[in-house]
């Protein structure tokens, strides 16, 4: 729950104290990935799209919206603008930072393939060019290369731990629009982002991983409006990420993770690793210990067959759906 360390002391002029939020590399990464259009642009970039007109043709995105999102991705050093010899016009290329987001997409894909395929084959078959095998992405401990669960991880404060003022931008709108996320092609990553939903849903999930289970504790910790919290919790229960468990003698409930919900921890840790590398200025807010091997670790994504890390340049695909664009 909120304590004396999560509010700036009340100013002498009597104005309200400023609410704070935990420093979080995952949150910083989510602010990039959770925007629907950003995700769709990045997805098509990983499929090799580089030209403005091709992004617009593939996505049916308004020109002004595409221009603003590409500008933001360039400003965040996810993409860069350049030209190729003997090819007309400027193109958008993934930077090293942008290429390094690929494991985040793969971990989200791993979750979607496992939990959201509805009994069908996953939409995409990965081919790991390094070993030549059809494979699945597997999120593992970067030290022992073994898979882990949320129960296997012991977090503690890192050198960048602390609090920052809560972002005051409007947040009632859901960032990841499910009507757009699977535009053009079916996609396990899109289905996963559709569950996470938006910044509030992510923050609620993060509170759950910190052991917070009750409505009032979440409301106080997050400074979230009651109606928004109720809406997001209902969505997460409907999506089978949380289950409601009654407590005490009243008609109140705790919100506990299902096994599916616990599995979302893995892509969150891959996002955290990216944020630690690129956004934390060498001071990650949190350290993680893998209880199984006893080592501090970062989550990485490897090929299910050769156990080597998967990078964007080493990946090919077989589409299990018709695609004409």
Automatic annotation (TrEMBL):
Protein name: Transcriptional regulator
Gene3D superfamilies: Winged helix-like DNA-binding domain superfamily/Winged helix DNA-binding domain (1.10.10.10)
InterPro entries on file: HTH_HxlR, WH-like_DNA-bd_sf, WH_DNA-bd_sf
Organism lineage string: Bacteria, Pseudomonadati, Pseudomonadota, Alphaproteobacteria, Hyphomicrobiales
Keywords from the UniProt entry: Plasmid
Pfam families: HxlR (PF01638)
Domain of life: Bacteria
């Amino acid at each position: 729950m909120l304590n004396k360390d999560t509010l700036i002391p009340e100013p002498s002029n009597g104005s309200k104290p400023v609410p704070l939020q935990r420093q979080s590399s995952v949150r910083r990464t989510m602010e990039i990935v959770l925007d629907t259009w950003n995700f769709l642009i990045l997805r098509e970039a990983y499929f090799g799209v580089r030209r403005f007109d091709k992004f617009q043709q593939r996505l049916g995105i308004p020109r002004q919206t595409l221009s603003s999102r590409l500008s933001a991705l360039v400003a965040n050093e996810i993409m860069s603008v350049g030209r190729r010899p003997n090819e007309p016009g400027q193109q958008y290329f993934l930077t090293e930072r942008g290429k390094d987001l690929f494991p985040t997409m793969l971990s989200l894909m791993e979750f979607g393939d496992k939990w959201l395929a509805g009994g069908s084959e996953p939409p995409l078959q990965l081919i790991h060019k390094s070993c030549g095998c059809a494979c699945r992405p597997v999120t593992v401990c970067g030290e022992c290369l073994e898979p882990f669960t949320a129960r296997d991880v012991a977090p503690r404060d890192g050198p960048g731990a602390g609090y920052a003022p809560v972002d005051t931008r409007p947040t009632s709108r859901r960032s990841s629009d499910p009507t757009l996320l699977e535009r053009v092609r079916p996609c396990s990553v899109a289905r996963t982002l559709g569950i996470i939903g938006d910044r509030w849903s992510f923050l609620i999930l993060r509170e759950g991983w910190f052991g917070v289970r009750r409505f009032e504790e979440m409301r106080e910790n997050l400074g979230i409006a009651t109606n928004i919290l109720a809406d997001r919790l209902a969505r997460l229960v409907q999506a089978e990420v949380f289950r409601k468990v009654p407590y005490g003698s009243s008609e109140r409930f705790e919100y506990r993770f299902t096994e599916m919900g616990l599995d979302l921890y893995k892509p969150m840790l891959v996002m955290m690793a990216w944020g630690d590398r690129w956004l934390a200025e060498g001071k990650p807010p949190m350290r993680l210990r893998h209880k199984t091997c006893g080592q501090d670790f970062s989550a990485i994504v490897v090929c299910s067959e050769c156990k080597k890390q998967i990078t964007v340049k080493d990946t090919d695909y077989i589409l299990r759906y018709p695609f004409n664009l």
